[in-house]
UniProtKB/TrEMBL annotation:
InterPro entries given in the database record: 6-blade_b-propeller_TolB-like, Regucalcin, SGL, SMP-30
Cofactor: binding details: Binds 1 divalent metal cation per subunit.
A Pfam family recorded for this sequence: SGL
Protein name per UniProt: Regucalcin
Provenance organism: Salmo trutta (Brown trout)
Gene Ontology biological process: L-ascorbic acid biosynthetic process
Cellular component terms (Gene Ontology): cytoplasm
Length: 304
């Protein structure tokens, strides 16, 4: 299997995260969490637009009615890209002012799932068990699914929408839940993969057309493909940076795997060794893949 890795967005993010392929525009949406920016990169023109946020921004997803829904600080917000304005939809974790949103993704029915974590003292060093997993429904009702989370991270759904996959990074596992697409409820929590020594910390992830999960490995410098049915790692793609953070499929035929990365916490010596840290990479794996859950491309965006 042929693999090609290239750096496509060369401007560094402190903590690049949450890539989403926007099919209609041929653009890649992603955030810089601590850099407090939301970026939109056009793959045809190689131009990048940016909106600044007032607080750390964990995720941004397209909205069917236009603009984006974001997780900023401890708030779900609505972003109007043209006016660069953000309005608050709902505030969570009101009893935990030191928390913030991290990774988020929309389920196939249009609910935005996003989790929280405590603010880090430095990368991966934080007060533990402060986070929770939430979902924002189309009617703006917020549901809290569970708490006691260290670093809420990667999430996606199986192709039949009956399984929800989730990562709490410092457990070093990928977990699965039974999923009810009609109600958005989850149950029967279980482990499907345990990180092996040297693989790093599981971060963001996505699913391909064969139902396999691709997991970005923070401090591991790689993305791994795993079979959630067997718990077996199928392949490893190495990248030229250690702090790989998340991934999504995109491109004209969804054969491109876009991978975000981070440079926050690296010193000058580290940066000299990894000058592309914080950039976005395109991995061409030449296999049959899709964008994962349909929410990122079409009719299933969150709505008012």
């Amino acid at each position: 299997m042929s693999v090609k890795v290239e750096c496509v967005v060369k401007e560094r993010c402190e903590i690049g995260e949450g890539p989403v392929w926007e099919e209609k525009e041929g653009t890649l949406l992603f955030v810089d969490i601590s850099g407090q920016k939301i970026h939109r990169w056009n793959s045809a023109t190689n131009q990048k637009e940016t909106v600044a946020t007032e607080k750390f921004v964990g995720c941004a997803v397209p909205r069917r009615s236009g603009g984006y829904v974001i997780g900023e600080g401890r708030s779900f917000g609505a972003l109007d890209w043209e006016s660069r304005s953000i309005s608050t939809i709902a505030v969570i974790d009101e009893d935990k002012p030191n928390n913030r949103f991290n990774d988020g993704k929309v389920d196939p029915a249009g609910r935005l799932f996003a989790g929280t974590m405590a603010m880090e003292e430095r990368p991966t060093v934080l007060e533990l068990k402060q986070g929770s997993l939430f979902s924002l429904n189309k009617d703006h009702i917020v549901v809290k699914h569970f708490n006691q989370v260290d670093i809420s991270n990667g999430l996606d759904w199986s192709l039949d929408h009956k399984t929800f996959y989730y990562i709490d990074s410092l457990t070093y596992t990928v977990e699965a839940f039974n999923y009810d697409i009609n109600t958005g409820s989850i149950s029967n929590r279980r482990m499907v993969y345990k990180m092996e020594e040297g693989e790093g910390i599981p971060d963001g992830m996505c699913i391909d057309a064969d139902g396999r999960l691709w997991v970005a490995c923070y401090n591991g410098g790689r993305v791994i493909q795993i079979d959630p049915q067997t718990g077996v790692r199928l392949q490893t793609v190495k990248l030229p940076v250690d702090k790989t953070t998340s991934c999504c499929f995109g491109g004209r035929d969804y054969s491109d795997l876009y991978v975000t990365s981070a440079c926050k916490g690296m010193d000058e010596a580290d940066m000299a060794k990894q000058p592309q840290a914080g950039c976005v990479f395109r991995v061409r794996v030449y296999v049959c893949v899709s964008g994962g859950s349909s929410e990122e491309e079409g009719e299933d965006h969150p709505t008012q």
